[in-house]
Design brief:
alpha+beta; 308 residues; GGDEF_dom; 5-stranded mixed sheet; binds guanosine-5'-triphosphate; Beta-Lactamase; Alpha-Beta Plaits
């Protein structure tokens, strides 16, 4: 027969198996602190868990009073700290192949000796690759939850947060409201001024929405020209006030289109979470309220009214 590769059977050499068994026993029972550290670090991609392991293994060799780590990953500050400080400090910028993966600081009441500092550096060298992997994992997770055009959380992030909000609302009898906002006649902006201006307007709108809300609220890009705002501890009336504030923030935006100034409006639909409905039904009710706002003239807010 043609085109069938011949498979050559190889036999395992008993001596290889013996060597493997010995290596495994050495590896699993190793008292070598660097092997133990890297083995433990390789079991997780959680940066927080890795830093806990690093602090434990470091502390068993070089005692310290406090260890802290700081890094900005995907526009967010990641901070880890354990123990209470001391006046003596050694600080390391963790770099690999020209990329920084955070700053590690150790504090102690007594000065670090040169031998101890060398020890810290050896431990960091062994830990840097797993730490880099954990940082990259956070960045990838963040990217999957972020809208590439506006850099605000995307629909996937909204779905996750709505699920959590509906659970919390039921467990703690807390009020949550959702606003869906949709730019009015956005197609005309694209048609008349082009997609570059349309994209710019979407970015400006995301910024205006973020500025118009409280720190505890969050904005998401829900779809093309549609945004969502999740408001914890907020009832219908308060949510309507926020929606009106958002509308006026968007109406105040101005885009210079080479001599002419472009301005836009946005319509908003509000729905308070009604247990025990799920996230999907909650969105559907906010969408119904938005549909009414569009249908009744745009640039207005409509609330899916509930009876308490
Ligand atoms: N520039 C740009 N346009 C987008 C993007 N996503 C969706 N759109 C456009 O947004 C427009 C939405 O149009 P419609 O759904 O008709 O809505 P509208 O023109 O805003 O009308 P109303 O919502 O009824 O007021 C379409 O032309 C899409 O192509 C994007 O990322 N960038």
């Amino acid at each position: 027969m043609k085109n069938i590769p011949s498979i050559q059977r190889t036999t395992t050499q008993p001596k290889d198996l013996v060597a493997l068994r010995q290596a495994y026993q050495g590896w699993s029972n190793t008292p070598d602190p660097l092997t133990r550290l890297t083995r433990r670090l390789s079991t997780t991609l959680s940066l927080e868990t890795q830093l806990g392991i690093l602090a434990e293994e470091m502390g068993s060799i070089i005692p310290f009073d406090a260890l802290s780590y700081r890094h900005q990953i995907a526009r967010r500050d990641f901070v880890y700290a354990t123990g209470m400080g001391g006046p003596h400090r050694c600080e390391y910028r963790l770099g690999l192949e020209g990329v920084c993966y955070g700053t590690l600081t150790l504090n102690r009441r007594h000065k670090f000796s040169d031998e101890e500092l060398q020890g810290v550096e050896m431990i960091i060298s062994a830990a840097i690759c797993p730490l880099r992997n954990a940082c990259q994992f956070i960045a990838i997770e963040q990217a999957a939850l972020t809208d590439a055009l506006t850099s605000i959380p995307n629909k996937r992030a909204l779905d996750e947060h709505l699920q959590r909000a509906s659970l919390l609302a039921e467990r703690h009898a807390e009020e949550y409201s959702l606003i869906l906002c949709d730019l009015d006649h956005f197609k005309e902006v694209n048609d008349q001024h082009g997609h570059v201006v349309g994209d710019h307007l979407l970015r400006l709108t995301a910024g205006a929405l973020e500025t118009a809300i409280r720190n505890s609220d969050s904005v998401y890009r829900f779809g093309g020209e549609e945004f969502a705002i999740l408001l914890p501890h907020t009832g219908e009336q308060e949510a309507r006030d926020v929606a009106d504030r958002v509308r006026s923030a968007v109406a105040n935006l101005r885009i210079d289109c080479g001599g002419t100034e472009l301005s836009v409006t946005i319509s908003c639909g509000v729905a308070r979470y009604m247990p025990p409905e799920g996230a999907e039904q909650w969105i559907t009710r906010a969408d119904e309220a938005l549909y009414r706002a569009k249908d009744q003239g745009r640039n207005c807010t409509r609330v899916f009214a509930t009876i308490r």
